[in-house]
Amino acid sequence: MYFVRRGSLEDFTDIANIHFESWGATYLGLLPESYISNKNNLFEKTEMWQELMVHPDVLVWVAYDTNHKNLGFIGYFKNNDNYEITTLYVLPKYQWLGIGTRLMKTSLQDILDSHINAQFCLWVLESNVTAIDFYKKFGFVYTGDNSEECYEGTQITDIKMVRKK
């Protein structure tokens, strides 16, 4: 059994660890291994989350089990009524148990309860079909906007998705 709550500053180390472990596992086979090794640094993620958790425009929800172990999280950056999902990660051994779905539903509902006109967007790796299909279940659609990066001869493309009301 697991639960979802708003994240707090005390969660930054767990969030960084989940981000580090899940990011590496998620992109294995989707991105060059050298890119993953270069971009996925636990120390940097820990510093980043320590700063982000106190930022007034960052919202984070955490999924945890009955032993209060953090299993996953979703993070948003807000700008007025615009919310960008910047991160959604669940520890690899807890994936496919509905935790990501619970995080998404809980966070969307909480935001919509207080901001009826909220608009949501996100960027996702174009080759991450699993994630794209997941977001589509929640009404997200591809906008046609892309962000491209070339890394050691490999084209890396992120696509923008928005949630239709």
3D structure, described in words:
The protein is an alpha+beta fold. The chain has five helices and seven strands, in the order βαααβββαβαββ. A seven-stranded mixed sheet has the order 1-2-3-4-5-7-6. Helix 1 (12-27) packs across helix 3.
Largest sheet: 7 strands, mixed
Q: What level of helicity do the residues show?
A: 25-40%
CA-to-CA gap between the ends? 30 Å
SS strand fraction: 35-45%
Overall body shape: globular
Radius of gyration: 16 Å
List low-confidence stretches.
Answer: none
Q: How confident overall, as mean pLDDT?
A: 95
- The ordered string of helix (H) and strand (E) elements is EHHHEEEHEHEE
Helix tally equals: 5
Helices and strands: which structural class?
alpha+beta
Strand order of the largest sheet: 1-2-3-4-5-7-6
Q: What is the tally of beta strands?
A: 7
Describe the structure concisely for a colleague.
The protein is α+β, with helices and mostly antiparallel strands and 165 residues long.
Notable characteristics:
35% helix, 5 helices, 7-stranded mixed β-sheet, alpha+beta
List the helices and strands and how they pair.
Elements: E1 2-6, H1 12-27, H2 33-39, H3 42-52, E2 58-65, E3 70-79, E4 82-90, H4 99-114, E5 119-125, H5 129-136, E6 140-151, E7 154-163
